Amino acid sequence: xxKTLAIFAATALLSLAYAAExxxxxxxxxxxxxxxxxxxxxxxxxxxxxxxxxxxxxxxEGQPAKDIFNAIPPDDKVTCSSEKGARSRSKExxxxxxxxxxxxxxxxxxxxxxxxxxxxxxC
Length: 123
Fold this sequence. Notes:
By secondary structure, the chain is α+β, with helices and mostly antiparallel strands.
């Protein structure tokens, strides 16, 4: 009887361990395509980073940018593009665009001296 109980307990524990492995994280990390730059000065007039001034700007493209774009509705009333069908969405310092010719792109950045969020792209 003790042997049967031990086998049952071991089987139950193995089943629980297997089931735990099968649970999917509800918000998994996903790969992305993008670029970044570390600079000083302003976005429109970037210079080499200095000891006193270092900023980080990210550009994300493709499906990850589309996911971000869709997560921050509604569309902005004004876009930077004159292309028909172009759209733009932004919240604080996160800015995403859609252009039929280029697809989805998102921009955001950080001031590396302070750690604060800053704009990562300009019109």
